[in-house]
Amino acid sequence: MKINLIPLGTRFEYEGEIYTKTGPMTAASEKGGQRMIPRYAVLRPVGEIPPAPSPAPGRPVDADKVRAAFDTYHAVALRLADDFSRPELEAARQKFLATLGD
Known about the structure:
It is a single chain. This protein is 32% helix and 18% strand. The chain has helices spanning 63-80, 86-100, and strands spanning 11-14, 17-21, 26-29, 34-36, 44-45. The chain is elongated. It is α+β, with helices and mostly antiparallel strands. The chain is built from two helices and five strands; from the N terminus they run E-E-E-E-E-H-H. The two termini are 43 Å apart. The protein has a five-stranded antiparallel sheet with strand order 4-3-2-1-5, with no helix packed on it.
């Protein structure tokens, strides 16, 4: 198993020593001290692996509200932009709106 697949707080064996994962790539040894665990290292879990935390629920996005907020922003940006920048701003606006879909 690789370090990025192990949840924080999980115990594992690496190079004959038992560690507890304390960060994305760090672990604390049972003998004391911290160590960086390389991504390529193959680790052996000790005991049960706790389930990964469920992702935070996303908030639904109202596309009409996003469009309205962006149009307000875009109007200000157009007022502040010089004549040479406006075509580029409009192209960026069209690209943004295209990502929202219809």
